[in-house]
Amino acid sequence: MTKFLLFLLCAFLMLGEPTAAQAESAEGTAALTETVAYPRVPRPVYKRYRGNSRSKHRKPGMFRRMKLRRQAKLKRTAPRAVRKPQGVIKVDAPTGTMPKQPQ
């Protein structure tokens, strides 16, 4: 039934006058192109393209959270290692370059 209706629609469209479907004169098309030929405006870009990094990070699972909590607790309670001095630079006493002033 649908194919038959489509066939009838195509036959009806073929009965139309071909002159009505031809293009208009040059004056009419020039006016039409002036109204249509507007300067292209780029689409606004709301977010910069950052590759494939737009995936949302998931909350870590229970075991990962427990592991991270243990590590943070160890880091918080571990005694801070006192750093030894790496080296001592010994310098001689400064020598004066100006002669002493008589008083």
From TrEMBL:
<keyword id="KW-0732">Signal</keyword>
<protein>
    <submittedName>
        <fullName>Uncharacterized protein</fullName>
    </submittedName>
</protein>
<feature type="compositionally biased region" description="Basic residues">
    <location>
        <begin position="70"/>
        <end position="83"/>
    </location>
</feature>
<feature type="signal peptide">
    <location>
        <begin position="1"/>
        <end position="23"/>
    </location>
</feature>
<feature type="region of interest" description="Disordered">
    <location>
        <begin position="70"/>
        <end position="103"/>
    </location>
</feature>
